[in-house]
Structure formats: C-alpha cells, structure tokens
Amino acid sequence: MDFMSLLGSMVQGTMSSSPAASSRMSNAGGGIQDLLGSLMGAGQSMTQRVGGDNLAAGGVGALLGTLLGGSRSTTANALGGGMMGLLGMLAYKALKNSSSSSSTQQQQTMTYTQPSPQQQASDAEIILTAMIDAAKADGQVDPQEINKIMTNLQSSGAGQDGVNYVISKLQGPMETAKIVAAVRGRPELAAQVYSASLMAIEVDTEAEKRYLDKLAKAMGLNSNIINNIEQLTSANSRDYVC
User: Fold this and answer.
1) Buried b / exposed e along 13-43 (16+ C-beta atoms within 10 A)
2) What DSSP character marks residue 116?
C-alpha cells in the first residue's frame, strides 16, 4: 500500500469537504512560512537549520501552494509528502516553543531532521490511521458519511485498494494503542499525530474533545505543546458544541 499517496488523497478530500479543516491546514501552512522566514532571518540558511533541500523534496512547497490557493492538480504523492513535511515543521515549532525550561542557547541549536523515505512512509501510515480514528471519534460515521469520504478519495485520485483500506479502517475499531506504541520515544511524531488529528475534523462534539484529550495524554504531550499546536493551526479544541 502506498500510504504517502493515500495520505495525499485523504488530505485533498478533507480540504474539499471540510472548510474548517482546510482553514486549519492553511493556517498551519502560513505558520510554517513564518517559521522558515524567522530561521533564515536568524543568520543561518534554511538548508543548515531545517534541511532545505530535503524539505523541498518532501513537497512542502507544493502543499503550501495548494493550501494557500494554488493549483489543486498536485499529485497525491506530492501532497502526502508535503503534508508529512508540514507536520514535521509544525511539530518542530510546537516542541521548540514549549521548551521553556531549556536555555536560549539550547533552543537556538534545536534542529529539524527530515526522516528517511522509509521512515516517512511508515510515519505516513500512522498519520493516516490517526486521521481516520479522529474522523470516527464521535462514533457517528454512518453510511452516508462513508459514501462521501469514498467519493472524495476517488475524486482525489485514490485507487480502489486505497479506498477499500480507508473504508475498512473507518468501519473497524479505534487504533489508539497502535498509534501510542508507534510514537513512543518520538515526541515529534506524537506532535504530528495530534496536529493531523486536529486538522482532520471539526472539534464540535464532547466525544471528539474527550478523544483528543485522551490521545494527547496517552502520547505524553503536555498542555504547553498542545496549546502551541492549537495556536499554530488557529484551532481551539476546547471550544465545542455539545
């Protein structure tokens, strides 16, 4: 299964069907642009500080172009890679900003490391699992919603195998334990998982709020990191409609 392409199709489908989720992704994209500018303004090149060549190869530029009003003809694989790069940079900034106990020197030397292609593909599966779990967190994924998701995936270029995979996951049990095991010892991936979960849904039910709180706690994310992520995406999962 090509999880990178499937993630890209999921992202494109989410952007098409959920204005709120699309807005959060766009806000996060703007935050990454600000981050790149601030790092470059600090006197060191983007390549030195965040691996600019690899970052570009990951498709962040393509994703930002799509999020911020550019062409939506970008391939699913590029969107998937861009989403992973975007989440990686978002996690970097959220974790860096939460290190209030670290010295200024330690924070300045904190770097973003682009995962290997193999690791990125594995992480994409976890991110995809997290987005699907978030979508069914309120227990209300009915046949009509599944049909809508299937249509969005197909229009985004997902193959039948990918569509069947997502549908089976939507109809299956929650996979919180799998996600928590995957992020153990990797706070940057935990931050990415929380960010992707927040982007995937409109947090407008108590069940969704409880799910996000439980997930964050199980992954070991503290309130500072959570608040940073929500600020970066201009989301407030604490405000919801019962």
Assistant:
1) bbbeebeebbbbbbbbbbbbeebbeebbeee
2) P
C-alpha span between 96 and 94 (Å, rounded): 6
The reply to whether the predicted model has a pTM over 0.85 is: no
Is 212 contained in some domain?
Answer: yes
181-210, pLDDT tens digit by residue?
999 999 999 999 999 998 888 888 899 999
Per-residue pLDDT tens over the stretch 16-35: 655 555 555 555 555 444 54
- 3 is written with which tokens? 């999880």
The residue with tokens 């020197």 is: 105
Instruction: Examine residue 240 and state whether it is found in any structural domain, yes or no.
Output: no
DSSP string, 64-128: HHHHTT--S---HHHHHHHHHHHHHHHHHHHHHHH-TTS-HHHHHT----PPPHHHHHHHHHHHH
Q: Write out pLDDT tens, residues 92-108.
A: 888 988 875 444 444 44
In a domain, 30, yes or no: yes
Q: Is residue 239, in this structure, part of any structural domain at all?
A: no
Tally the domains of the chain: 1
**pLDDT tens, position by position, 51-84:** 443 343 344 555 555 554 544 556 788 778 778 8
Across the chain, mean pLDDT equals 74
- Domain residues for the domain of 109 are 3-232
- Is the distance from CB of 193 to CB of 183 less than 8 angstroms? yes
The count of residues in the chain is 242
Return the SS3 of 40.
helix
